[in-house]
Design goal:
By secondary structure, the chain is α/β, with parallel strands linked by helices. The chain has one domain (40-304): Ribonuclease Z/Hydroxyacylglutathione hydrolase-like (Metallo-beta-lactamase, Chain A, 4-Layer Sandwich). Helices cover 38% and strands 21% of the residues. The chain is built from 10 helices and 16 strands. The strands form 3 sheets. The protein has a 7-stranded mixed beta sheet. Strands 7-8-9-10-11-12-15 form a 7-stranded mixed beta sheet, covered by helices on one side. The protein is globular, with a radius of gyration of 27 Å.
């Protein structure tokens, strides 16, 4: 018996399928992570010259001053920049944080060189006088042998000093600081550090030279941002080595540090010209997968982590090349063997 199409029933089937498809899309959309509050995974990084950074949540509830050298070598004047009112003095900074009701305040050092220690003692004194809840996070031996005696000499309390060793982690509020290895000539042991703040991972290299185990920092801590010293000269790695370091670390963003304004000299330090060299090498070694950001001194660079991103930049390494080569050779040999076998069987 022949059946003729029923336009009405066909339309109903199409409508049901459309409703099902829309319902499925809505269901799947609820399963995809959405960044409903960007401030939960946003940080502001403000550079003050050398390796000095303020790293803060947007509301300043948590703030870190890493190698706090803001005024000592007057980099603002060298770069032709007028600092914002809160950065005019240690007292102004303390008053600003008090107004912001900052609860998790950290001063931290990667080593004891003067361009790293900068204004730490003056800032600590101002924070103490303002009654701010701050901590000083520092390498354990450096704290015992130098920091604590120096604080006592200047009348600054030492019960807020937090000591850590390589691999150690300090948690202050919602901020983690992890001491990682550094190849640098300071005494005693210099460190670099992974800073995890507001769900953003930042690796502060301090003044380290390049070392192969930077790969481990990538694999263990997966930082999105790398603050990379490019201090070309006799005391630290230059733009070429720093560029290759980004290949090992695979951050999303690399920020060059440890360079000066043109015409300024400090221990054969790099200048803005070397920043361009750094950009070139990062692009060459990471195949354009890492973005270089050069912040304006004293102005915040805002970074928001993409919570929907599940993979980091894929940068092919020498090991990857070897694997691909061996796999290709193996497949080629296998195929060639099959062809040769068929050819010989035909001749028989």
């Amino acid at each position: 018996m022949l059946k003729f199409p029923n336009p009405k029933s066909d339309a109903m089937r199409i409508e049901k399928k459309s409703v099902f498809a829309i319902a499925l899309i809505l269901l799947l959309s609820t399963m995809i992570p959405v960044n409903v509050n960007a401030e939960q995974n946003t940080v502001n990084l403000t550079w003050f010259g050398f390796t000095s950074f303020e790293i803060a949540t947007p509301d300043y509830s948590s703030v870190i001053y890493a190698n706090p050298n803001i005024w000592k070598f007057d980099q603002a004047t060298a770069f032709g920049v007028k600092l914002k009112p809160q950065y005019e003095s240690p007292e102004a900074l303390a008053n600003f944080l008090k107004e912001k009701n900052s609860q998790n305040i950290v001063l931290t050092l990667t080593n004891d060189h003067p361009d790293e220690t900068g204004d730490l003692f003056e800032i600590a004194k101002a924070f103490q006088d303002a009654g701010l809840p701050y901590k000083i996070v520092i390498n354990s031996d450096l704290a015992k042998q130098w920091m604590i005696p120096e604080l006592e000499k200047q009348g600054i309390k030492t019960d807020n000093v937090v000591r850590l060793n390589y691999g150690g982690k300090v948690t202050i509020g919602h901020t983690n600081i992890i001491a990682t290895f550094a190849l640098h000539g300071s005494s005693p042991w210099p460190i670099s550090m992974v800073i995890e703040i507001n769900d953003v991972g930042i690796w502060h290299t301090g003044g380290t030279a390049i070392f192969n185990d930077m790969r481990l920092i990538d694999k263990l801590y997966d930082p999105e941002i790398a603050l990379v010293s490019i201090a070309d000269g006799p005391f630290s790695m230059g733009p070429r080595e720093a560029g290759y370091a980004t290949r090992l670390l695979r951050p999303e963003i690399a920020i060059p540090t440890h360079y000066l304004a043109p015409g300024v000299e400090f221990m054969n330090e790099s200048t803005l010209e070397d920043v361009e060299e750094f950009k070139k090498y990062v692009n060459e070694f990471s195949f354009g997968k890492v973005r270089v950001v050069v912040p304006t001194l004293g102005e915040p660079f805002t970074y928001t982590s993409n919570v929907k991103q599940e993979t980091k930049p894929t940068i092919q390494t020498n090991e990857d090349n070897d694997t691909v080569y061996l796999a290709t050779m193996g497949a080629s040999t296998f195929i060639a063997g099959i062809i040769a076998g068929k050819y010989l069987s035909r001749r028989k």
